[in-house]
Amino acid sequence: MKNSTARDWGLRLxxxxxxxxxxxxxxxxxxxxxxxxxxxxxxxxxxxxxFENRFWExxxxxxxxLLLGYAIAVVVGIPLGLAAGRFRWMDRILNPYVGVLLxxxxxxxxxxxxxxxxxxxxxRVFIVVLFAFIFITVNTRAGVRNxxxxxxxxxxxxxxxxxxxxxxxxxxxxxxxxxxxxxIGLGRSITGMVMVELLLVASGLGRLLLEFSGRMQSDLVxxxxxxxxxxxxxxxxxxxxxxxRIARWAPDISLG
Length: 256
What we know:
Blueprint: H1 2-29, H2 38-51, H3 53-86, H4 88-103, H5 109-117, H6 121-145, H7 149-157, H8 162-199, H9 204-214, H10 218-246
């Protein structure tokens, strides 16, 4: 196990080094003076983290919408997915709306949400929920449907109640898919957070990106994006650690 982990990290560092090397090589031959070197991006990130209080203020503002929206998406999406996977009548009700939300891009809904809810926190939270909850719902529903029907029938034949079937069979069987949906939903939440701040609501990290772009400070633009990526990776790593603790027996899966 230790050798496998060391090998994985070695491959990751190798790929990262190759990407940085290609970046620097491209920058050396590029005529685009706005494209910063990777070393300049790292320096700008260092300045943002340790010398720019407004970065932390912007991160706090953005994370308010991210955390609230993601929490609501989980609270709404998982019960809907469980119900749709277990009860056919619920699935028939939800299926048209699920299909529409999966097929249509969320970006066109942003102006409508802004008109309805204004430019405050509630609009940003609602958009994050739109980006995330459908993937949590779909993966949860898929996890319930993948539970072996024979196990449920056997439990019923031995007199198990519906609540016991849920606790002992359905929820444990759907747990890997639920966590996969939560991971996907987390990534989508971060996308929604940044997108709404860039397109319509100039607040948080989106406001910083627009400000740095307007001043042609490309190193700070890339540094801010890198900070968002680092936060996303940290949150996803924390999610995977929670999953390994709760469902140690489950395989690592990802359902779209």
